Amino acid sequence: MATPHPAAWPSDDSFGPFLPGHGDLTLVFENIVLAILPAALVLLLTPLCLRRAFRDRGSCSIAWTFYVEIVLVSGCFATELLATDIWGASSYVPRYASKASALMCLAAVCMGAVLVLGRIRGHWPALPSLYAATTALFDLVRMRSYILRNMGVMAAVCLATTLIKALFVTFGRISYQLQSRSALLRSHSILDWVIVTLTLGFKNTIDLQHLPELDPQSRSEVLLPQLQAHWAKSEGKHENFQ
């Protein structure tokens, strides 16, 4: 995968300054907040889910949708593994990108473990569906960033991952509906709250006027004269040095 051409970048002003190359703060932010943090949270919660499944046993009933979910989790793992391999072979690797892909691979493994053990032990853990629904929206954001940087391969991988996770959530709801009405209600309430909350960011634009003022002394009208005086002083020193 070639290094993205800087000419494709001016349309992306979603976060941070423009620093073509490895100083791309937008991708750093997205890799940490939209990939590493959700995956790390799944890794932390997986032992708790597995412990609960080992400790308590309910009535086990496996529907046909369970096998579809297993295939979809495997597909999610495959796409994340492909992303890790692409970053490893690429001449341009944004900071934390390879770590984010590796952690998301582990998160996909945890999804499968929680899903399989939970269903076999008669539990209906919400963690896999919750993680899939949340990160599917995050993957759309990352896909946009890759498209703006002419990184079509990574954008295609993100799109494939998003579709797989959307199908996983859909078949998960079908499984709940077929087997457990109480689990269906819990899943609906949690997923609906998460999806509605996250989609607020897609429907609304937060501008500077929406943010509270941190300090009156930090306003641009106050800082600009101070900065101009500092710049003039620095230019004078530079001229004297020459």
TrEMBL record:
Keywords assigned by UniProt, alphabetized: Membrane, Transmembrane, Transmembrane helix
Membrane recorded as keyword: yes
Superkingdom, taxonomy of origin: Eukaryota
Transmembrane segments: 32-50, 62-84, 96-117, 153-176
Record's protein name: Uncharacterized protein
Gene source species: Beauveria bassiana (White muscardine disease fungus)
